[in-house]
Amino acid sequence: MALLSAIAGLLLFVVTGTSQAEVPPIRDYASYPPALPAGCVDGESALVNVRFTAGGVTTADLGALPLTAGQAFTMTWDGFAPGCEGVGVGLSSKVATVPVFDQSTDYWLRAFSYCGPEAGATPCVNGTNTLTLAVPPASEVPCYQLDAHLGPPLAQVGPTADYYGFLNGVRSMLISAQNGGFAACTPLPPCPTNPSIPAAAYDCTSSTSASTVPSTTQPPVTTLNSQVTTTTVPVTVTTRAAGCSTGQSLNSVTGQCTTVAGAVLPATGRSSASMSTIGGLFVLSGLCVAFAYRRPSTARRA
Questions:
Q1: Per the domain annotation, does 40 fall within a domain?
Q2: How many structural domains does the chain have?
Q3: 129-134 vs 57-59, strand pairing mode
């Protein structure tokens, strides 16, 4: 029986969220906070006997728990208040720019552990539940905020997003919190893919991981501005085209035949030079005949 009890306790510890749950953070701040079941009280009153433990110290106030950078701590509760059964519970860390809570400052989700009714999430149980998380390392997150809350974590807390506590103006989803730091809080290295958030933020590390997957998509084709004016230069065909007379060419733009400048018309008969030569020969022959005919007559007169 002792062995069975130990196994049952181990299984209970495993299924109640010892690692980050497969549920996305809340980014729809306009719809936050979500409604609680009818009759369920908000805030820490929704859980029974909440306590936080680290290094052998247990306290009901997360803010009073002594923690060091990178140290793991747990949140444990013994059940839910009447009407709150099935409500999700989360434990999350934030990247901060100050070591205290300042409602005018933004905080970015770093990591979280969660159990709840959402698809992909580890269900919370009716009995004792435990969530485990670690304080961020000082080298990456010198100043931090830790939150225990109802429902999934907010991707961002602050004036440009929303709040777990009554500052959201509807109901408190906050169970307990701690703010602290181990070094100078700023400057924070910006996210390479989104400079408006820190590099250590959950939304930066998750998007960076996705962007390292090689892409097989071809690069987009650059389209020139359709407003660019193009000038068409008329091209004259210098060879004779069907339908055009000799020495003319067809203009490919106007469709008309034009005379080619400097064109030499081909010969259609005998050369004029050869005709002159022949004429000269005829004249010379005639003179020779006349001379030969008149020579004897001259002799007789003598």
A1: yes
A2: 1
A3: unpaired
Give the integer Cα–Cα distance in Å for 164 and 237: 80
Q: Is the pLDDT of residue 195 over 90?
A: yes
- Determine whether 228 is exposed, middle or buried from the number of CB atoms within 10 Å of its CB (0-12, 13-18, 19+): exposed
**Is residue 47 a part of any domain in this protein?**
yes
**141 burial via Cβ count (<10 Å: 0-12, 13-18, 19+):** buried
Residue 162: phi and psi, rounded to 5, are -160, 180
Which amino acid is located at 128 in the chain?
A: T
Q: With respect to residue 160, please indicate whether it lies within any of the assigned structural domains.
A: yes
Extended strands (E) in the chain: 47-48, 51-54, 57-59, 72-77, 79-80, 89-95, 107-115, 129-134, 143-150, 156-157, 174-181, 248-250, 257-259
Q: How many whole angstroms separate alpha carbon 55 and alpha carbon 228?
A: 71
Range of the domain at 74: 9-206
For the chain, count helices (H), then strands (E): 3, 13
Instruction: Say what the pTM is.
Output: 0.64
Residue at token pair 């999350």: 92
pLDDT at position 173: 98
Asked whether residue 71 is assigned to any structural domain, the reply reads yes
pLDDT, tens digit, 9 for 90 and up, residues 75-99: 999 999 999 999 999 999 999 999 9
Pairing status of strand 129-134 against strand 174-181: unpaired
- Backbone dihedral angles phi then psi of residue 165, each to the nearest 5 degrees: -80, -165
* Residue in 62, 65, 31 with CA at minimum distance from that of residue 47: 62
Biggest alpha carbon–alpha carbon distance for the chain: 177
Of 274, 270, 260, 193, nearest to 201 by C-alpha is: 193
Distance CA 42, CA 269 (A): 115
Measured between alpha carbons, how far is 227 from 154 in angstroms, rounded to an integer? 46
